[in-house]
Structure formats: C-alpha cells, structure tokens
Amino acid sequence: MIVSRRWLEALLDRPLDARETAERLTMHVAPVDAVVPLHQDLGDIVVARVLEVNKHPNADRLTLCLVDAGSAGGPVQVVCGARNVQAGKSYPYAPVGAVLPGGVRLERKPIRGVESNGMLCSAKELGLGDDHAGILELDTAAAPGTRFVDAVPIADHQIVIDVPANRPDLLCHKGVARELAALLGGAVKLPPIPGAGSAAPAGGDAALGGRRRAPSTRGGGSARAAEPGVAAGPSGPATTGIVDGVEVRLEDPEGAPRYMIAVIRGVKVAPSPPWLAGRLSSIGQRPINNIVDATNYVLFEVNQPLHAFDLAKLRGPAVVVRRAKPNEPIVTLDGVQRTLTPEMTAICDAERPTIIAGVMGSAASEVTESTTDLVLECAYFQPTRVRRTRRALGLSSESSYRFERGIDQLGMPAALRRAIDVIVAVAGGALREPPLDLWPQPVQEKTISLRPERASHLLGVPTERAELERLLTSVGFFVAPKDGGNRLAVQVPGWRPDVTREVDLIEEAARLKGYDAFPDELRPYRSGTVPDAPVEQIKARVREQLAHSGFFEARTIPLGPRDGPDAVAVRNPLSADEAYLRRRLIPGLVRRVEHNWASRNRDVRLFEIGNVFRAAQDRPEEWDSVAGVLTGARRPPHWSEGAKVPDMDIWDLKHHFELAVRAAAPSCDVQPATGGVVGWEAVQRGEVWGWAGRLEADAPVWAAALFGFEVRLDATLPGAVHYRPLPTQPPVERDIALLLPAGVSAGAVSAVLARAAGPLLERLEVFDEYRGAGVPAGYRSVAWHCTFRDPARTLREREVDELLAGALQALEDELGVRRRES
Questions:
Q1: Which of 120, 122, 613, 802 is the most buried (most CB within 10 A)?
Q2: For the CA atoms of the chain, what is the radius of gyration?
Q3: Tens of pLDDT along 420-454?
C-alpha cells in the first residue's frame, strides 16, 4: 500500500516527518518497505512574475519576457517559446545554474541572437504532468523569488507499507492515519472537499482519543447509527427497491450481503481538478476523469471500492445482483471478453452483466464524456466468492484486493455519502433521492470480553485496566466495564474483521504499547510437566551426538525419483523427478553434498532426521531414520601443522556410525556388512536396522571419498508409551498399613509385595506415612493402596484375601515387616 505524506497530514491536520512516520509505523503497525521522495528535485525552481512580454526580434514564435525572480540584480530577460505567458502573472522559473528534473543544468546562452537567462517552465519540464505546450501558470500570492516547492504544495513522500493480509483497514489513508493518531495523539477527520457546496459529513473517528457512546442494537438493526442522507431499506429482509426511477434487485444476498445504490443526475464528465489529480498522482495512480477519479479517491481514502454506471446505458433501467448464468459473456474494462460461471456474482442491468462483482466493470456501462446521469454502486461482496472469481478469471484489481480481505460493512453509508459529495463538487449534478440501502440481514459490531489479569499473564508484565482501555479506544474500539470492573466489554469496529478473540485484543494492546517497551530478559515461568515423547527424546539425543561430531543438520524434501520396487507413488507429483516418496534419506543428502562441491566446498558433514516410506499392502509404512554423509578433511587445518590434514577414511565412518547407532538404536549390534560389501550393519534380533559404507556421487576430481550411513530410530526404547486397552473386568482394592523397621525402604517392601502377590496385583501405590503414638519406637507406619484385577474374569474376595495373606507372610519372613493393627 502506497500512502502520501501530505494526504496523511490533511487527515491529521498536522505536519509529519516522513522518516519518523515510517519508523513509528514499522514499530507499531506494519513494516514500511520504502520512503520515496516526490518532487524533491525542484529546490532550484522559484516563483517569478512576468513584467513584460515582447516579440523576439529574430523569431516569430519566440517572445522576450522580462522576469522578476526576486534577485538582487533586478529583473532578467528570458526567451520563451510558449504563447500563453502574460504580463502580471506568476510562473515557475529556473534561473541560470538551476538543475531541472533529469539532471539538466541551465546555462546562460543566446537564442536566435538574444541572450536568455534561465527559463520559464512547463508542467512536463518540472515532472508534474504531460503538458508541455504552455508554461505552467501559478495561482499563488507568493512573492517573486519564493521557492516553488514552498509556494505550491507539491513536495511529498510516498510511504510504501507492507500491509499484512489480516489488516484490511490499513489499505487506505484513513486507516493509516487512525494508527498514527493513536501513536502521536489527536484525531482523524476527513479534510473538506475543495469546491463543495456544503461541508462534508463528519467522517472522523469520534472514538479516537476518547469513548464513544454505545449504539442501540434494538430491533435487529446495525449497531452503527444510520448515516445522514442515506435511506435504509424497508423493515424486514428487503431485497428490492427503486431509487430515482432505477429498479434494484438483490437476488444473491449471499454474494452481496449489503448493496447500496445512489443516482446522481446532471454531471459533467471532464478532467479532474488539480487537487484531485494531485492526490491520485501522489500515490502512483493515473488520473482518468473526474467521475472515475472521485471513486478512486474514496477508495484510497476510506477503503470502500465504488463503481459508477452511465445511467443511459443501463437497460431497464435496472440493477440486478445475481449469480452469473453458465458461460455468460462479459467484456471487461481492459477490453477482454471473459466467460462467467454460476459460482460468480454478477451485477447486471435488465438484460446483461455489467460488472463482475468485486473485480471489474464492463465497457457496456462505462462512464464517458457524454455521460450526464450516474448510478453509483457501494457494496459489500462476500470475500471468498470474490477470491474464487478473481482466481478463476485471472483478473485482479484494487477493488478485488480489498474485497477479498474484507471491508467495513458498517461504514458503507458514510463512504457513499463521501463519494457523492466529491462527485458533486468536481462534476456537478444533484442527488434527487436518498440512496437505497438493501441489507437483508444486518450485522452488529462484535463484543469481546477482556480480562486484565489475562493480559498481564500473556504479556508478562502488570497491565492495568485503565491502560488497556486507553490503548484500545485510541484505535476505535469501544470499551466499557463489565462484571463490576473485573472484565472489559470491548466492541470491535467494523473495519477490524481480524479481531475475533480475547487474545487478539491483548495483541492489539501490546503492539500499541510497543514491543520495545517490554523487558527482554527471561522472566520466571512455570515449565510444563508433560515430558517429550520418547521418539523426540531419541531425536534430541541423536542431534546432540552428531552436532558434537561436527555434523550440520540438513532438511531435504521427502520426494524424489523411484529408487526401488516398494517406492510409494505420489498421486499429484510436482515433477517427474519428484514423483515418489523417499525410501531412504541418503540420496537427498548426496545431492546436498554435490551442491556443496559445486560451490567448491570440499569438507562436508551433514545429517538429517526424517521420515522414510515403503509400500505395503493396505497403506504405506512410515518410520523415522537418521542419515549422515561425510567427506573431506578429518579435522580443520591448523597453522602449526606442516603437512596436509588427512582425509576421512572408512574407519572414520565406522566411528561416526557407532556413535549414531548408540544414540538412535542402542540395542543394535554393529557388525561387518554381509555379501562382501565393505561397510557395517546395525543388527537387532536378526533384523538389519542400519548400514554404513562408501557412496557414489558426481564428484569433481579434487573431492575426497564420500561416506554415509543410515539408521532407523528405535522408538521401542524404555519410556515409550504404548497403547493398552481399558480393562473390562472390575478391580478389587485393598488398603494395608505396614510397620517398617528402621533401614527398610518402601521400595523394598513394594518389590516383595509385587513378587509375592503375583500378576493379579495390577497396581501398588504408597499413600501415607506416619510416626507417633501407636507406632513402636524404631518403626514407621507406611500405607499402600493395592489394586487386584484378572483381565479375563471377576475376582472373588476370598482369592484376594489369600493373595494378600501370602504377600504379608513373605514380608514378615524376608524383611521383618508386619501388618499394623488398628
């Protein structure tokens, strides 16, 4: 998004420094990619008043102008080729020595035998337009000699903001100004329209800098008050209406939840006035005519896309919002015929489509110089529908970019009122009837509950309720106390569709406060009690071991060519070389080594931990493996060594392979490879879990031998969690208190109980320890909770009593532990 510094200044009614503004936006709002100065190369140009205009003695098409440029030497003579120069008027003047845009330096030189001191400049020579037929006449009271950029407000800066997808409110000058007002103080107010017959309606955010009144929501209507001059549709789910003779039918309320139409009669299409053309040019937009430019102005000012129809070209006259018919054709404004589908929303007249909703209009209803009556559309189109339409047609526009991200559905009346005022000011005409507003299912502003203690917990610093209220209200949220002040009820404005949860409000408060305001040291925190999964513990151990050995971890894609009969094919491969899931990690690492060799990196040690796949009967098998490759010098060279560091050999491979096996699958044995191959294998219970050996690769002549290994991770190590079905038989539970002599541990007692009671003792837990009255000296009382269960049948009480009696006898015989009598 490109915003103009001067445009922001008009909204905030205060001067801005472009660099400081960019820094504040980057720190609190969104990254600023660039700050581009505009017309800063006109510093040498001054305002001059022409005193006399005389005919050139040697040329019929040239004139001699006596120019007062405010210099100490008095008026100077300038040869001019334009015929529009008149005595007594002011023009931009480039004196001798001035540098024009493009780097041309002016010199004093004769023209047709008469010396010319500098030049009077046209708009094109100053880089302000394409008109070079005449000198640029200035409507200014500035004294001669005043710098041109001081007398005429053209010096500007373009601030290029990288707007994230979740912040559509930043796609307009008002949204950016709202953020700056929160950071700098003040309020946002739409500037008056030059030439407007009446003052523009208040468009500022009343909530900026303070509270706003909670709106009424009775009757199921909008939570925002009706805008002046905009007629709401009839009560109930209205989908049709007539405004100034134009019938409007909303037949696709899903694709267009809200649709507004205004009719302006008696306009005159012409080039835009300088203020409007200048606003659009300052952000890189090409002025077209006063009607189109007015709609674009409102688009970039308040983020509301609009479209103007030529009423005379609308058949009916009618505006119908419906789904497109199968293969329905339309010629868009870019002159290309496109085919619509029923999945798209079309804006039509009585017979044909005139707009692809939310994307682009057609040439059939385009505003031209002969247009006198306008139909002005202001709509909210369903974002996902617009996105699918834009992708299907391969057509993007400023409007679709905004509709896809979501605009302020509640702010449409104010935006339409603003557009009407701009059009009437620059093109004349009149609004004979209030606009029509079709809104079958009105929506309300969301209200979210915010807990200050939750904000303090997430942000890690104490956050007061008053501070939260101040920060949120500064950007247009309405905040009111709730539950006696323990919570805040926050009403989200319509221009912030991204704020849906409490954590979003906390994030808003954090960014407005400034992330640099939070402490950067690690504060005390409560760590989690859930341990990592066993396989993750194995991966961490493998990473640590290989990293200590000088290996760097690599990540390769799990796709590649077919490398065996049990390779798993991908249904929609990206390419023929990536049509199968990998069976091994080694090939991807070998390609990485070849890439390093191509960059003349000879010493390489890489490892990867990832998934490998094998085809099976029902579904592919998948497991985790670790692989490593090594080539080059055995260790880094040192200046004290005279001889070259030796390269790694097969025994270095064996060393690293044993380290990897010890970390990944310690129950495996490393044995020489079978089949006469030089290398080693990791074997567990007769099954090969890994291998190591020399690898083949596309190596340059200066490269050393390449070695590699791959080992399957053993996820069955102790500590792994395995599935066990819930028991189907009821348990029998007993609590026993035992007297333990000094020196006898509870662990030793548990071991004897478990052995003596046998497999039916499912669980044994200590739940109490006691010393005191009733316990003999030198003893302590420890209580166990015993759970007995037979997985196949229901146990009888008598069976449990017999098992427990045998276990107690074993305790007394072996450890001198006896049951405590109550």
A1: 120
A2: 41
A3: 999 999 999 999 999 999 999 998 899 999 999 99
